[in-house]
Specification:
Elements: E1 6-10, H1 15-25, E2 32-36, E3 42-46, E4 54-58, H2 66-80, E5 85-90, H3 109-120, E6 124-127, E7 134-135, H4 136-142, H5 146-167, E8 169-171, E9 179-181, E10 187-189, E11 195-197, H6 200-208, H7 212-215, H8 218-227, H9 237-254, E12 262-263, H10 268-282, H11 285-289, H12 297-316, E13 321-322
Parallel strand pairs: 1-4, 4-5, 5-6
Antiparallel strand pairs: 2-3, 7-9, 8-11, 9-10, 12-13
């Protein structure tokens, strides 16, 4: 295997920008040949070894046609040269606004573009767009429009439920800086750098405990605590009792919204209980005496996700949230 190093290459669309990126990153721009035959065909060749390297390719997709083909060939060439990872930086992503089926018999062109690049071998695609709006924390500081609060809260809830239940991948650190509110009153999501995958072996037992009758079934509850790595085979009876009580309280509280069709996230009592639970166990001398590192890393990520999400929903004072609305989208 080759040495794992970063290499930066430029397509023909953004050579000047790539040079500036290289200067800031303290990297040379890689040696790459891009030629065109007399009939317009594009030919590319990397003039250096890419085996085992972390490759970055800078190329916009517009004007359409040639730049798209060129980028696909650059990705494929890097992959066939045994690059460890192919990262595509698209400063201007043409077709990005054609991201939905807004009328009959039309394609979702943004998805078509993503399919081309991922099928060619892109491991990661980095692009950008100008999004204008007010930070969520600034908006919630003065907003008293309940209808708008519920609209934004529903969008936020559906956004996270789609990640959790459909994508099985979630942004595990939600906070106000991740969102803007547009002048039209729409929620804009940005800055998603902490994405965590949710494996099936974790997802199934965790959300089985989101069902109230399962949490209230002592035998079933105990079994799932072992599956979630909260309890261990070498735990003492004292440890089993302590952690059963702790996680019964925690999971009963965190999964409460899932046992209602409509939930009021503006309820100060619900939010107060979450805050008090965290404070109480952070100061627990009993917890410090035991081996308190419990639960898989996925358990930690998911609980952190819910804690952040519930904070945002409380700040919005969203009080009429349809919990299963995401299933209809």
């Amino acid at each position: 295997m080759g040495q794992y190093i970063q290499k930066l290459f430029s397509g023909t669309s953004n050579r000047e920008l790539t040079a500036k990126i290289a200067e800031q990153a303290n990297l040379p721009v890689g040696d790459l040949v891009i030629e065109r035959f007399s009939d317009g065909e594009i030919w590319v060749k990397y003039n250096e070894n890419l085996r085992g390297n972390d490759v970055y390719i800078v190329q916009s997709t517009n004007p359409p046609g040639d730049n798209i083909i060129e980028l696909a060939l650059l990705i494929d060439g890097a992959k066939r040269a045994s690059a460890e990872k192919v990262n595509v930086v698209i400063p201007y992503f043409g077709y990005s606004r054609q991201d939905r089926k807004d009328q009959p018999r039309v394609p979702i062109s943004a998805k078509v573009m993503m399919d081309i690049f991922t099928q060619a071998g892109a491991d990661r695609i980095i692009t950008m767009d100008w999004m204008k709006g007010e930070h969520l924390s600034e908006f919630t500081a003065y907003n008293n429009n309940k209808e708008l609060s519920n609209k934004l809260g529903q969008a936020l809830w559906d956004f996270y439920m789609h990640q959790l239940h459909n994508l099985k991948k979630v942004h595990a650190d939600p906070h106000p800086g991740n969102f803007l509110v547009s002048k039209e009153g729409d929620l804009i999501a940005l800055d998603f750098g902490c994405m965590k995958s949710i494996p099936t072996e974790f997802y199934v037992p965790y959300f089985e405990l989101a069902i109230e009758e399962n949490i209230e079934n002592p035998e079933f509850f105990l079994k799932k605590l072992y599956e979630l790595e909260i309890l261990r085979e070498d735990d003492s009876p004292e440890e089993i009792d302590f952690f059963k009580e702790l996680f019964y309280e925690l999971l009963s509280l965190f999964t409460k919204p899932f046992n209602q069709e409509v939930f009021d996230f503006s309820d100060p009592l619900f939010f107060q209980k979450i805050t008090e639970l965290g404070e109480r166990y952070s100061k627990s001398t009993e917890l410090r005496k035991m081996n308190g590192n419990r639960g898989s890393k996925h358990f930690i990520y998911i609980n952190r996700t819910f804690f952040g999400l519930y904070n945002l929903m409380f700040d919005l004072k969203a009080n009429e949230i349809q919990i299963n609305n995401y299933k209809k989208l």
